[in-house]
Amino acid sequence: MLDRRTLLLGATALPLAAPALAQTSDWPNRPVRVIIPWPPGGSTDVLARIVADQLSQKLGQPFVLENRPGASGNIGMEAIAKSAPDGYTQGPATIANLSIAQFLYAKLPFNPETDFSVISMHWELPNVVVAPAQFTPPNTLREFIDWAKAQPKGVSYGSPGVGTTAHLSGSGFCDRLKIDGQHVPFRGAAQIIPAMLSGDLTFAIDNLASYIPVIQEGRMKAYAVTSPERWTTLPNIPTMAEAGVPDFVITSWCAWVGPAGMPRPIVDKVNAAMKEIAADPAVQQRFLQTGAKCVWSTPEDALAHAAKQRPMLAQMVKVSGARME
Fold first, then answer.
1. For 92-127, how does the pLDDT look when each residue is reduced to its tens digit (9 = 90+)?
2. What is the mean pLDDT of the chain?
3. CA 57 vs CA 50, 54, 70, 149: distances in Å
4. How confident is the model at residue 137 (pLDDT cuts 50, 70, 90)?
5. Could you tell me which residues come within 8 angstroms of residue 153 by beta carbon, excluding any fewer than 6 positions away?
6. Higher pLDDT residue, 121 or 190?
7. Where are the beta strands (DSSP E) in the chain?
8. How many Cα atoms sit within 13 Å of 82 on the Cβ side?
C-alpha cells in the first residue's frame, strides 16, 4: 500500500538518470509519444489516457497514445526501454512490469530495475474477492471459504493472465486457506465476468475497477477488498482483515516512466505536472469513478516502493508455481 510517508516524504535518493542532455529547457517542443503496454479499454489504458490529457494541457504539447499490448505488457515496456532518452517517449508501468516480471519470466527483453527512468507513482487500486450472486450462496467471506472447501470437485478462480496480481492473489488465497482451487487465465475482466455470470467460473480476486458496475448491479457478490482500508466508493465491502483473513494486503499500482537516461530536468518537469494532477479534486473524482486512486510520489519513492514489494511478490510467484519463457 502507498502510505503517506511513501508518497510524500521521500526516501533515500537512488540513481535515476544520466546527466541532463543539452537543450532541455524548452522541452517539450513537439508531441510526446505515450506507449501503453496494455490493450485499449482496460484500467491501465483508461487511467493513462486521463493523465496524458492532463499532461498535454499542463505542458503545452500533445501526449499521443499508442497501445502496444502483448506478453503481459513486456512488448510495450521493451519499446519504452529502447526509446531515445530524450523525454519524448513515456508510458505507464504497472506492478506486473516493475515488480513481478523478473520473477515470472525466464528471460526479459528489459531490466525492470535499471532500464527505466521512473518519474512518479500514477495510480493504485485494490483487488476484490468476487463471485456470481446467482451461483454462490455464501454472503460473507468466511462463509465463502467454508463453502469452497466443501465443493467436491474444488473451485476455479480467474485472472487476466499468469503472474498478474489477480492470479497471485487467487493462488495465495487458496494455498493459505487450503482450498482446492484451479487457476483459469483469461485475456481480461471482459472475459472473466461473463464466465462467472454463466456459472463456468467460481470466483476471482481481481482489480476492483473492472467489477464496480456488476457489484453495484447486484450480479456479483463482493466479499472483501485487499487494501488495508475500505474503498471510498464502496464502503460496505470489508477489508480482508475485517472479513477474517488478516495479513492479506496486495494492491495493484502503476508508475509513469520513460527510458533510462532521461535528463533529470525533464523528469522533474513531468513529476511537478503529475503532482498538480494528483492534487486536482476533479481528476481524483474521475479516478475514483473508475475504481482507482490517483497518487503522486517523488521518483526516488516510486523506485523504493517497487523495490520494497519485490520480495513479497517473488514469494507469491513461487507459491503459484508460475513460470513463463
1. 999 999 999 999 999 999 999 999 999 999 999 999
2. 91
3. 11, 5, 30, 53
4. very high
5. none
6. 121
7. 32-36, 63-67, 89-94, 116-132, 155-159, 181-185, 203-207, 220-225, 251-259, 293-294
8. 8
CATH superfamily of 25-124+252-320: Bordetella uptake gene, domain 1 (3.40.190.150)
Mean pLDDT of 66-82: 92
| Of 318, 310, 258, the residue nearest 87 (C-alpha) | 258
> Contact, 227 vs 235, CB < 8 A?
no
Assign 195 a pLDDT band (cuts: 50, 70, 90): very high
Looking at residue 193, its amino acid is I
Question: How sure is the predictor about 11, in pLDDT bands with cuts at 50, 70 and 90?
Answer: very low
Cell of 42: 482496460
DSSP secondary structure, 98-144, as one string: IIIHHHHBS--SS-TTTSEEEEEEEEEEEEEEEEETTT----SHHHH
Let me know if domain 126-225 sits in CATH 3.40.190.10. Answer: yes
pLDDT value for 23: 56
What would the pLDDT profile of 75-85 be if each residue is shown by its tens digit?
999 999 999 99
What cell does 253 get? Answer: 499500482
**Residue spans of alpha helices (H) in 21-104:** 43-59, 74-81, 95, 101-104
DSSP 152: T
- Asked if 150 and 124 count as a contact pair (C-beta separation under 8 A), the reply is no
The domains of the chain are located at: 25-124+252-320, 126-225
Question: Pick from 191, 127, 114, 202: which is nearest to 160 by CA?
Answer: 191
- In this chain, the answer to whether the domains covering 25-124+252-320 and 126-225 adopt an identical fold is yes
